[in-house]
């Protein structure tokens, strides 16, 4: 079901001139959420959550080395177990690490409201496969989002154009009928280049789920 019946017109919802507008909010079949910084409150999970967790468990690698290991793991080139081992940690586990994540306030309520409109909901996330699965199960997000495109599963990370192309192929949807909500400007720009409609979350005018609800205006 397209969102023609639940979204306002483009003119009604035109953002400020500093933010490129979504082109046709009346023709959206799929709303795609980023995970970190949108569904989950921590935007830089590597610096703010992963590195401190590693340090507390004996990792002595420098930041660049950790970032490279994480990137390889988030591309599916190693398992999370191999990541912990390569990082030189002791006593680490996926479950313990994922306990550090928190949902963005109001995320579940908004997902439930959108899901009730029968619009298709998806997630396109740069993340480790095992961690993404644990988090969505822990918070019950699979009840609302049935289509998960995690870089560790699909082998490509945003803003690579192939990430957006993969989503469209697997959902059998044309790009301009997809709305991406992401907190990183490079991902929003790449999505628009790929033909998606896109909103940047985390800006002063769009930093809460209540503000996002008002921007989407589906009810």
Question: Mind explaining what this structure looks like?
Answer:
- Helix 9 (185-193) links the parallel strand 4 and strand 5.
- The two termini are 15 Å apart.
- A five-stranded parallel sheet has the order 3-2-1-4-5, sandwiched between helices.
- The longest helix is centred in the N-terminal third of the chain and has 12 residues, at 63-74.
- The chain has helices spanning 45-55, 63-74, 80-86, 94-98, 107-115, 129-139, 151-154, 161-171, 185-193, 209-216, and strands spanning 30-33, 120-125, 147-150, 178-182, 197-200.
- The model is unreliable at 4-19 (pLDDT under 50).
- The chain is built from ten helices and five strands.
List the helices and strands and how they pair.
Elements: E1 30-33, H1 45-55, H2 63-74, H3 80-86, H4 94-98, H5 107-115, E2 120-125, H6 129-139, E3 147-150, H7 151-154, H8 161-171, E4 178-182, H9 185-193, E5 197-200, H10 209-216
Parallel strand pairs: 1-2, 1-4, 2-3, 4-5
Task: Pick out its properties.
219 residues, alpha/beta, Rossmann fold, 2 domains, 5-stranded parallel sheet, 10 helices
| The CATH homology group name of the largest domain | HAD superfamily/HAD-like
The chain-level mean pLDDT equals 90
Which percent range describes the beta-strand content?
5-15%
- CA-to-CA gap between the ends? 15 Å
Radius of gyration: 18 Å
Known CATH architecture of the largest domain: 3-Layer(aba) Sandwich
The major pleated sheet works out as: 5 strands, parallel
The CATH topology annotation of the largest domain reads as Rossmann fold
Name the helix and strand elements from N-terminus to C-terminus, one letter apiece: EHHHHHEHEHHEHEH
